[in-house]
Specification:
It is a single chain. The chain has 456 residues and is α+β, with helices and mostly antiparallel strands. It folds into 3 domains: 248 residues, Periplasmic binding protein-like II (D-Maltodextrin-Binding Protein, domain 2), CATH 3.40.190.10; 95 residues, D-Maltodextrin-Binding Protein, domain 2; 96 residues, Beta-Lactamase, CATH 3.30.450. It contains 19 helices and 18 strands. Helix 4 packs parallel to helix 5 and helix 11 crosses helix 12. The chain is globular, with a radius of gyration of 22 Å.
Length: 456
C-alpha cells in the first residue's frame, strides 16, 4: 500500500507548481486535485469517463472567465481508496472517489484528525443494492465449489475494501471466520490477480471490475457472487469540508460535471464502455458488464436511503475486523446539500427511485448498440441467430436466475428444467447457485452453454 502513496510519474510535472491542493500556485493559476481509481470502473463518472469527456475542465473554464481566474485540474490515479484518503488528510487532494468501506474509513480518520481535515460524502457514482459489484473468484482449474472450500487456504484481497468485507461477511454464512480461518494477503487487485494465476492464492476477493476482468480473460471463474449476500455496495465522492466551504462554486462545477457524465454514460453506454476500456486497458467486455445499459452497476449521483442505511450497518463490521479504529459521525459525514443544489428540483423523486431488473443483451462486434432480450430463452435464440448469420459476437450478458446478477452468458452454468416449459434453460453465475437449483428441482440437469444455444 505504501507504493501507491507516491504520485504516478506522469503527474510529477503537473504537481511541480502545486503548493496546497485547491490553492493558487503562482500567476493566479488555481489547481484542483482530484484523486480517482481508473480501474475501479464504478467510479468512472467522477474519474475515468469524466476526465476523458473534459466536462469538469469546461465548467471550470467558464467559471474562471467569469471570475478572472485560471483553473486547472490535476488527476491522480490510484488502485484503491486508501492512498486517496492519506493524501486528502495531508491536504494534497481536494476531491476523491472510493468505495463504501474506504469512505467510512476516510470519514472516521478525518474526523479523528479534526479541524481542516474533516471530509464529507457529497454524491454517489454507482451502486448495486444486492452487493453484486463484489465477488470471489478462483483459478479456472480450481476444484473449489463453494466459499467453504477456501477455508484454511490463502485469499488475496485489499483489506478494508468492499471486496474484503464481502468475503468476511459471506464466510460467516458458511460457518468459518474469514479473518482467522484463512490466510489473508493484503494486496492491490492487480497483484492479487497475479497471485491467483501463479497459484500463490486460492481465491481473490475483490471489487468491480476485477472479477469480470479475470473471467473474460479466461483466468478465473466466479466462485461467489456478492449479490447473494444482499448487502448494498456503492462508490461515492468525498471532499474536504474546508474545501467545500471555501470553494463552493468549484464543488458545484465538479458535481455538475459528474451529473453530465452520468447522463452521458446512461445515454451512450457502448461509447462510454469503449472510452473507459481505452483509458484503462481493461477488456471492454468486462467494462460493459458493469457499466452498460442494465449493467451490474447503476449510475446515479443521488444519495439514496438504502445506501445511507448500508453505511450505518457497515460500521460495526469494519470495527470488528479492526480497520475502523475511531468512531465516525455519519450525520456529519454524509451531506447531500451540495448534490441537491447541483441536481435540481427532481432530486427527491430521483433519489427515491430504484433501478429496473437487469435484462439480457448481445453485443455484436462493430455495432454501436447492443440488443436487449426480455428473458434467457430470448437471449439464447438471439445468440443462435447471430451465429447462423455469421455475425461475430463480442459478448452476451444474462441475469442470474436467482440473484439477478448479470454475468457473461458463456461463462454461466446453464441448467435445463423440463418442467419450466419455454423457460427451460436457466443461467446461474456460479456453480453453487446451479447446484442449489438442481437440488430443489427434480429432473433438472446442467447442460453446456453451446447446447442451450443450439436447442433454444
Amino acid at each position: 500500500m505504501k507504493r501507491v502513496l507516491a504520485a504516478p510519474a506522469a503527474l510529477i510535472p503537473l504537481l511541480a507548481g502545486c503548493t496546497v491542493a485547491g490553492n493558487a500556485a503562482g500567476g493566479g493559476d488555481v489547481k484542483i486535485v482530484v484523486g480517482y481509481q481508473s480501474k475501479t470502473i464504478n467510479t468512472v463518472t467522477a474519474g475515468t469517463l469524466l476526465r476523458s469527456l473534459g466536462y469538469f475542465e469546461k465548467r471550470l473554464n467558464e467559471l474562471g472567465k467569469a471570475e478572472g481566474k485560471k483553473y486547472s485540474v490535476v488527476w491522480q490515479d490510484y488502485d484503491t481508496g486508501a492512498p486517496i484518503t492519506a493524501q486528502m488528510l495531508a491536504g494534497k487532494i481536494d476531491i476523491g472517489s472510493m468505495g463504501d468501506y474506504p469512505l467510512l474509513i476516510n470519514g472516521s480518520r478525518a474526523q479523528a484528525q479534526g479541524g481542516d481535515a474533516r471530509t464529507e460524502l457529497v454524491s454517489i457514482t454507482g451502486y448495486n443494492l444486492r452487493g453484486a459489484l463484489n465477488g470471489v473468484v478462483v483459478d479456472k482449474g480450481s476444484t473449489a465449489k463453494t466459499l467453504r472450500d477456501l477455508k484454511g487456504k490463502t485469499v488475496s484481497t485489499s483489506v478494508g475494501s468492499a471486496g474484503h468485507g464481502t468475503f468476511v461477511q459471506a464466510a460467516k454464512k458458511y460457518g468459518f471466520d474469514g479473518a482467522k480461518d484463512v490466510k489473508i494477503e493484503n494486496q492491490q487487485p492487480s497483484v492479487g490477480a497475479s497471485a491467483l494465476e501463479s497459484g500463490k492464492a486460492a481465491g481473490l476477493a475483490q471489487f468491480v471490475a476485477w472479477p469480470g476482468v479475470l473471467a473474460v480473460k479466461q483466468q478465473a471463474r466466479l466462485l461467489y457472487d456478492g449479490g447473494d449476500l444482499g448487502v448494498p455496495t456503492f462508490h461515492g465522492v468525498v471532499v474536504g469540508k474546508k474545501f467545500a466551504g471555501a470553494k463552493p462554486k468549484i464543488l458545484q462545477a465538479f458535481l455538475g460535471a459528474q451529473i453530465d457524465a452520468t447522463r452521458y454514460l446512461n445515454a451512450n453506454p457502448v461509447k462510454s464502455a469503449e472510452s473507459v476500456a481505452a483509458g484503462t486497458g481493461l477488456p471492454v467486455e468486462a467494462v460493459y458488464l458493469y457499466n452498460g445499459a442494465g449493467g451490474v452497476a447503476t449510475f446515479d449521483p443521488t444519495i439514496k436511503q438504502p445506501l445511507r442505511d448500508a453505511l450505518t450497518n457497515d460500521v460495526p463490521f469494519l470495527k470488528s475486523i479492526g480497520v475502523l479504529t475511531q468512531p465516525v459521525d455519519l450525520k456529519a459525514f454524509v451531506n447531500d446539500t451540495y448534490i441537491r443544489q447541483a441536481y435540481g428540483a427532481s432530486y427527491d423523486s430521483d433519489a427515491a427511485a430504484t433501478p429496473k431488473p437487469s435484462a439480457g443483451e448481445t453485443w455484436i462486434s462493430g455495432e454501436e448498440k447492443t440488443t436487449p432480450y426480455k428473458d434467457p430463452a430470448a437471449l439464447l435464440r438471439g445468440v443462435r441467430e447471430a451465429q447462423q448469420q455469421g455475425r461475430q459476437l463480442k459478448a452476451a450478458y444474462v441475469a442470474d436466475t436467482v440473484t439477478g446478477t448479470r454475468w457473461f452468458a458463456d461463462k454461466d452454468v446453464w441448467v435445463e428444467d423440463p418442467s419450466a416449459g419455454g423457460q427451460r434453460f436457466k443461467p446461474f453465475a456460479t456453480d453453487e447457485g446451479a447446484q442449489k437449483y438442481l437440488a430443489a428441482h427434480s429432473g433438472a440437469k446442467v447442460v453446456p452453454y453451446a447446447e442451450a444455444v443450439r436447442r433454444a
